[in-house]
Amino acid sequence: MNRSWAKSSGDNGPLPIPRAPRISERGGQKKSDADRRNALARACPLGISFAMPPTPPAPPQIFDRARLAARRNRVAKTFADYDFLRQRVLVDLESRLDDTSRQFTRGLELGASGGELSARLIASGKVQVMIAGDTAARFSAAATARGVKAQ
Q1: Cα–Cα distance between 25 and 13 in angstroms, integer?
Q2: How far is CA 120 from CA 48, 92, 109, 134, in A?
Q3: What predicted TM-score, i.e. pTM, was given to this entire model?
Q4: How far is residue 4's CA from residue 7's CA, in Å, rounded to a whole number?
């Protein structure tokens, strides 16, 4: 039996015809992808996988807050010696707020570094109440000494 489409392997005769593997599941029934998705939807009615925990885990703590506060407390001793760039930013922020006619009832300064911006904005009359927040106790104490509510 010589078939022109089958290549001969030499002495052993023609190679077998390659066929697609048969997919048989339970009782020879074939299931489509849609059937599988529907079965999963029935098993998980809320769209939640059984492998997922019922409550999401807490977000990872990327930074060591105690270490950050300790470093900022150490920096607070000599911060005024290296504060030239921050002073420039404070002047720019003040000039931009001077160009607006809006008055603010509250403001928040994060990473206050002594609350100088908060004190300037209160003195200018643009903001009625400022809260200065910093992780370092020394910077918070400096903000409180300037008359700014610090946290």
Answers
A1: 34
A2: 52, 12, 12, 17
A3: 0.55
A4: 7
Residues in the chain: 151
Task: Decide: 148 and 122 in contact? Cβ < 8 Å.
Answer: yes
* 10 Rama sector, left if φ>0, alpha if ψ -120 to 50, beta otherwise: left
- Give the pair of three-digit tokens for residue 151: 């946290």
pLDDT tens-place values along the chain, 151 residues long: 555 554 545 566 666 666 655 555 565 566 666 666 666 566 655 555 556 666 777 888 888 989 999 999 999 989 888 889 999 999 999 999 889 899 999 999 888 888 889 999 999 888 999 898 888 889 888 888 888 888 7
